[in-house]
Amino acid sequence: MKTAYGKLVVLIAVIVAGTMLFAPMRFGGDDYIYPHPRSVRMNPGDSYALSYRLDAADPNQTVNYSSTNEAVAVVDGNGTVTAVGSGKAQIRLDAENGAKANVRIEVKSLKVDTLELNTDTLNMEKGQITGLKAIFNEEAEDTSVTWRTADEAIAQVDAIGRVAAMAGGTTTVTATSTNGLTASAQVNVHVSGDALRIMPEAVTVGAGTYVRLNTYYLPADTTDEVVSWASSDENVLQVQDGTLYAAKVGRTILSAFTRDGLGASAVVIVEPPAADFTVTPTAATMDRGRSLTLEPRFLDKNGNVDADSSTHYITWTSSNPAVCTVNGGVVTAVGSGQARVSASADGKIASCMIDVQTLVEDVELNLDKLYVLREDTVIPIQLEAKITPSDADNLRLNWTADNDLVATVNQRGLVTLVGGYGTATITATAESGAQDSFTVNVVSELPEGYEKPEE
User: Fold this and answer.
1) Given phi > 0 = left and psi -120 to 50 = alpha, else beta, which region is 289?
2) Which sign does the torsion angle of CA 63, 64, 68, 74 carry?
3) 10: left (phi over 0), alpha (psi -120 to 50) or beta
4) What is the pLDDT of residues 268-278, one digit of tens each?
5) Which helix (H) or strand (E) holds 283?
6) What is the 3-state secondary structure (H, E, C) of 132-169?
């Protein structure tokens, strides 16, 4: 259409199309609805009240609102839009007589809604350094995190998520956002072993004994482990899952092999078993922190000490290591309570019942000495006692005064000055015998240069 008429037709068509594209939709004759604004950007949780202008013969007709995506935005009957989640939606305005219009809604979250790490598991070698990365929702504005490790002896983490493998084992590294979201990764630190030992390297047991020997690694924190055992003579010694059974008298070589290929061996000698086995004492009371050596004895069938069996291997265990531990028959009291220490040898078990008590070791009063004018004796003195250890079984103190013409004391440490001149010593004594004293001197004149101590 190169004629002027043709160009005019094209221009009119373009104008009509543009008008239909950008103008509000027209329905119901001459009715138009003009929303304000035509588009809104929001953050999740925000609200915005839409408004509109209605050009219509009936300006009081009802206008209804609806959302095309309520996962992004919802709208109430008054046109108030509430942003729900990230994304896009349209709010539709429908007038009663047919006029329609749309408002574009775009919701972007500047808050941290999600937090995860670039991996759930880190497998590292001791001495290795690698990094973890915190990943947030795309629109997150504050992407700072605080890093921490559950066990710094195994792995340490710095402020930017770099992880350093310190020793063999497993721990957890956690990132925490400023609004409290967390994400964690398990860190497994592998340490290759240089050597393996079975302890003891030579052991004598009585026939019929079940026993487990200890294994030690170099370095001590290796993550390697024994996966198989073998006996050079299974008629003498049988092995299953690390448990040894001395089947009959003889001599054999016990071998152990690790997952990473290390090996070690020990000589096992099987002798006839003792007729009986005991430990002394069979009961003991210990103070926390003290040690006691139990005496094991192998006996023959006549009840006499069996010297031939005295070198037989003994396994020691404590029923409650929080109360006491045992190593080679030496018992160490750890905490108040009761535990049974057992010794197993030649297929027999003997035991000692241990009762651990925590006694007061020291009492320290807050005042040492005080001079008081007689006219000031109407004011009582409150003594406070610091008891060590603070978790002793019995923290009760017995308070006494040696001169009740000068002062008396109740069992809460409150000293009452009676009014007489002289000196009185107040003593606080624990059940264990630990004690401390305070001296009060009632005088007519204070000593020269005397300064009252701070209470």
Assistant:
1) left
2) positive
3) alpha
4) 999 999 999 99
5) strand 283-287
6) CCEEECCCCCCCCEEEEECCCCCEEECCCCEEEECCCE
pLDDT of residue 28: 44
Distance CA 453, CA 370 (A): 7
DSSP 171-192: EEEEEEETTS-EEEEEEEEE--
Residue 176 has pLDDT above 90, yes or no: yes
Give the full edge-to-edge strand order of the sheet including 80-83. Answer: 47-49, 80-83, 73-75
Closest CA to 400 of 362, 435, 350: 435
Residues 6+ apart with CB under 8 A from 148: 157, 173, 174, 176
Sheet holding 263-271, edge to edge: 202-206, 263-271, 250-258, 226-231
d(CA 320, CA 339): 5
Q: Is the pLDDT of residue 455 over 60?
A: no
Order of strands, edge to edge, in the sheet holding 324-327? 291-293, 330-333, 324-327
**pLDDT surpasses 80 at 393:** yes
Q: How far is CA 453 from the centre of its chain?
A: 44
Pairing between β-strand 348-357 and β-strand 283-287 as defined by DSSP bridges: parallel
Task: Measure the CA–CA gap between 41 and 108, rounded to whole angstroms.
Answer: 7
